[in-house]
Amino acid sequence: QGMINEIANIRILREKFKNRRRRIIFNNDGDDARYGCKKATPDELLSQRTYPLVGTQVDSIFYSTGGVGFGVFNHRTVIGQVNTNREGSFINNVTGEFIEQGTDPLIIMVDFCNNHNIEIFW
Fold it and tell me: How far is C-alpha 7 from the geometric centre of its chain's CA atoms?
């Protein structure tokens, strides 16, 4: 019974939000966690591309933690491989350090968006 109610609630929310006005959708391929960060802090990650969106017409962020290869992600997962490679072009990849801290780039982005009333799709 609980699962049926939860599914019904999800359907109601889906209807509510599917036609929501979205002025600008910002696509972030997520490589800021692989290439742009010099240290593993939420502030460093968010300063790459996300902080400048506050106060703009961006209503939604489409965020990817993939792009390294099929089934390889820059967030904590049990259904794929986590990219913690720090060699070559991945020298600034902070994913592993974030995971050691108990977080990851996806959690940081979701928290930021929730705190700034920005919709996020992964």
Answer: 24
